[in-house]
User: Fold this.
Amino acid sequence: MGAPLEDWFMAQYHTRRSRRVDMAVPIRVYGIDYRGVDFTEDASTLNVNRHGAKIRMSHQLLPDSEIRLFSQSTGHESIFRVVGKLRSSEPLFSYWGVENLHPEKNIWGVDLPETRHGEQLKVLVTLQCPNCAVHESLRADATLMAALLEKGGIQRTCSSCHTSGVWKLLPFNSA
Assistant:
């Protein structure tokens, strides 16, 4: 049986304000742990949306405390509220639901669309040609996003310079 908080999150799927996207974004977390000790930890997201994220880290947090998340992929940061601890099968790590207190700050580097019931999830990303620096936007599903984040880019042929190379993911606001 699932953890009560995670079960509640799942039950809220249809009332969610923006869609969750499975993305392992490297983050740096700044905060105060459950013992009252300041910490900085390099961690990762498991999924993100415009209004929050599920993060994986070793420090134990307190619900309703505030933490600062810095996206190492985009260089953007925002203040988040710790919603609560989520179920984890990893003994050395905890999963936490966090809410972005400034959702207008999209620190993830992808366009996170509002929720529409029954629609397949794809996010708008902007890639840059390594040869001529032209930008192209496309809709990426979870598989493409995982490849972009894992490998730092994808192999494509440019329609402008007609050369092939590894196109890099650009931060959302730099497109």
